[in-house]
Specification:
Blueprint lengths: L2 H33 L15 H12 L4 H14 L4 H22 L4 H27 L3
Length: 140
Amino acid sequence: MNPNLSIVQPLLLQAGLTFVLLFWMAKERLGAIRAGTVIRNDPGVRPIWPGRAGTISNAFHNQLEVPMLFYVVVILAILTGSADYPMTALAWVYVVLRINHAAIFTTYNKIPHRFLAYLLSNLVLITMWVKLAIHVFTAG
C-alpha cells in the first residue's frame, strides 16, 4: 500500500471524531436551548452551556486545538516524502489516544485519566514533528 494513502486514514479518522463531536454538541446544545438552561449573562459573551451540553462542547473545542498540528504534520509528511511506516504508525497511535481522550472526556471524565491520554498524544505529536524536522533538515 502507498504510505501516503495509509497515513491519510488516521487523519480521516481524526476528522471523523471531530465531526461526531460536532453533531453530538449540536444535539446537546439544542436540548439545552429547548430546556431553557443556557446561561446568557451578557449578549456579547459566549453562553455557558450546562451539563452534557457543556461537556460535549468542551470535548469538541478540544479537537480544534492541538489536533490542528496533527493535520499539518501529516500533510507535510506527505509533501516531503516522510510519510513512511514509522510516521504512519505514530499517526495511528496519536489518533487512538485522541479517541481515548474524547471517550474519557465525554463519559466518566476522570481528569488524571484524561490528562494521561492528552499528555501521551502530545508526546506522540511532538515525536512526529521531530521526525519530520530530521527528515527535512537531513534531506531525507
